[in-house]
Specification:
Two copies of one chain form a homodimer.
Chain A (H helix, E strand, L loop, with lengths): L10 H9 L4 H9 L5 H8 L3 H13 L3 E7 L4 E6 L1 H4 L2 H15 L7 E5 L7 E5 L11 E5 L13
Antiparallel strand pairs in A: 1-2
Helix pairs in contact in A: 2-3
The first copy, chain A, binds a DNA duplex through helix 3 and helix 4.
DNA sequence: GAAGTGGGTTTGATTTTCCAACGTACAGGG
DNA sequence: CCCTGTACGTTGGAAAATCAAACCCACTTC
């Protein structure tokens, strides 16, 4: 029986291959907040400068950030999210929400997002088809690649 | 002027400190799919066994997974998500959605999730207060920690 | 002309990762 | 009994990534 030996083909893994390295999502956070200059990134993220330079190159290559001059003479650059980069923000929102709930229950959240409706923004993930909030138990996984299976829904 | 030198306090960073290492979110993916045994994880993720063992210990310590025996004699264990682990699934869904749209536009998605409403599950992140789909331009960030600022909304 | 700012690169020590092999405990078949 | 196979890791050494500090260059401001 020929069983696949390669890791499971998966969009989660592919996305993490682009933005899953240390600091990459924090770079995106800062850039989405409008803090796109190199020294701002170094200070706000706390990453080594060389690593940060590597990550920035990679994110630009991946089409998630753009590097654009904001000053000639002296040449100065700023990183900004592309459309694709902005579309990664839901990942940041869900990470933040989990952290706020599970790691900051007492100390309070260090950053509040305000939605244009006037209330604090708390992300809720819903089903595009029916509009209901999504829950683990209400989902079923169907692999579409031969040789890969799932063990059925996992209970806690 | 005393400027903070520490990295920005942030729930995104704190959450990534727990699940942001290489393979950790893929472990969560497999465990949520019901594939919680060590050799399944090795095969489906493609991670080195020693690294995987380290990640599993860390995720159990963090309260995201539990390790429970499914057989005495021989002793065999299975990893399952805790309630907190299941609540990280929205992160996986948003990562998958981005990858499906940006990296698999042609080739088709390797895994389809079906919602109990009968349709394919496509996650949409909405505002808990007003129910609208969230968009970058409609959010404003308010740091609640002295010394930390944002540069205003970033345009693409 | 001295010091400061912005945007990085270089250097060398430390830490992680990787892969293959090994160990242990049991089960099944001949 | 012996051999093979499965499940769940641990160990060892080589390769790669990370880290902090120093350095570099082009300007600007004092």
């Amino acid at each position: 029986m020929a069983v696949s030996k390669d890791p499971r083909p998966c969009s989660i893994a592919d996305t993490l291959a682009l933005v899953g390295e240390k600091y990459s999502l924090l770079v995106l956070r800062e850039v989405c907040l409008g803090n796109g200059r190199f020294d701002q990134l170094v200070r706000n993220i706390g990453a080594p400068r060389d690593i940060l330079a590597t990550r920035l190159r990679r994110l630009v290559d991946a089409g998630i950030l753009t590097k654009r001059p904001y000053s000639e003479r002296p040449q100065r650059f700023e990183y900004r999210p592309t459309e694709a980069g902005l579309e990664l923000e839901p990942v940041l929102w869900t990470l933040k929400e989990w952290g706020d709930r599970h790691l900051r229950a007492d100390s309070g959240t260090p950053m509040v997002l305000e939605h244009h409706c006037g209330h604090e923004f708390v992300p809720v993930v819903t089903c595009r088809a029916c509009g209901e909030e999504a829950k683990h138990r209400e989902l079923t996984a169907h692999p579409r690649v031969p040789g890969w299976t799932v063990g059925g829904p996992a209970a806690a």
